[in-house]
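Student: Please help interpret what follows.
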Amino acid sequence: MSIAIHANEKSLVKIFSDDFSFVIPPFQRPYAWTIQQASELLSDLMTTWNDGGGSTDKNPYFLGSIVLIKSPDSPDSQVIDGQQRLTTLTILIAALRDLLPAEKASYLTQFIYQAGNPFAGTENRYRLQLRSRDQDFFRTYIQEGSHFNNLLSLDPAPLTDSQRNIYRNAKYLREQLQKMGSPEAITQFAFYIMNQCYLVVVSTPDLDAAYRIFSVLNTRGLDLSVTDLLKSDIIGSLPPSKQDYYTTIWESEEEKLGRDTFQDLFSHIRMIYRKNKLQGSVLSEFRKFIMPIVKADVFIDSLLKPYAQSLSIIKSLSYEGEQHTEEINDLLGWLNQIDNSDWIPPALLFLSRHQHTPSLLLSFFKDLERLAAGMLILRSGINERISRYAAIIEAIERNHDLSGPASPLQLSDREKQEILTTLNSDLYLLTKVRRYVLLRLDSLISEGGATYSYPTITVEHVLPQNPKINSTWMQDFPTEEIRNRYVHRLGNLVLLSRYKNAEAQNDDFTRKKQKYFLSKKGASPFALTSQVLQYSVWTPDVIEQRQRMCLNHLKSLWRL
């Protein structure tokens, strides 16, 4: 059976007319355009209008397409794609209306509000209805018009993200339009927008057909994310009576995590399910392997919500338990400094299952940080990491003993030896490893008393890489072979909380301590660096001694 699909180019006069009654379905994402997108739209419109010499009948502007579920004989239109543009255009029309005298403003109101006509059988209605969570705000401050100035004086802090975007875009657009000066110029610009700006309206009465069009358009580069597409699939598959309830849960978790982290969550859930490297896209794998076997409400209740809450704890270091709270959050802090996020899926799974058993969490995260740090030091490739973490996920699901020597969570004897060998070699040359190892080491020496919230932390040499020829360095390290043996070793490295003068790097030891290793307040904020200040000389014997001390600390920490 063929489904009727219509596509027509229409000016905004026709878009915001009695032909359409736009409704944003509850499962759509919130209004997300920021000033960046609103400014690009306004700039493009003004540029095109100005290129036509301010003419109201030249240089038409194409605004893209919208996808609707709509029957040919009814104005009722569910917006499957296009709510960002329709909402921003409504805000733009409202801002123009606010800057015009009452008589002209009333004509623009007709594009926002349809007055009912008993002879035509129409009712009073607003031409665009947002999701229920935002509609009252949008109607009061944008569509009604009388409260537009009140919107500009609101405190945006207590608003939701979507309401804050409405507020900021309305304020920005009005400020920019006001710069046009005269009401005549604003009137001409408004006429141009309504008559020379066009949307392609793609409509079909069939829900599935609309979603297919929506997916095709948005997998070809439009601005919806994987989570937006999955939201339309998952929420859209629910009975209408459940859609509002589960949309609220979905958007609440998205708002708590932030849009980027929420999108990452779906990659982590995919990994928990698939336990292998991504073969295509997160979207395609969700649709192929997860959605067919998990009901939409079960997915949101049993996967999305608990995993989102666990991810929030992991990223914000906000675990709270009856015991071990500080230790667990400290370990999460170190894990978040690893240069990849492949460890997060097993962490999510274990935390969501054992959130109320802090002793198990402490043991697990100690071992997970040890493994993640070990693979960082060994520079394990992505395939090796994913395979290892997949094995851990499977072990968690099967309730295997994670503490035994055969567990994938534990380092093998070979791995321990390789880690020690790497730590005892030229660590400085491992650019993605050295900072983590030194910070971890510094935290051990300071016994938890140090903080690492400095904007800049650098790894520096005590014995410089290029000592001056006439310096005492050349006496204590007389040959290039000796210097090369020690210069990049762990025992010769320290941490600094700011960039230093490059010239001071090569000074003699006594002078370098004063100019290079002291903070503005005197003592260094790093225990490793403060130790160096206690030495009167810096020789191969001193570096050997520090090398053994550093290695012993790390061996104890990571049970090497």
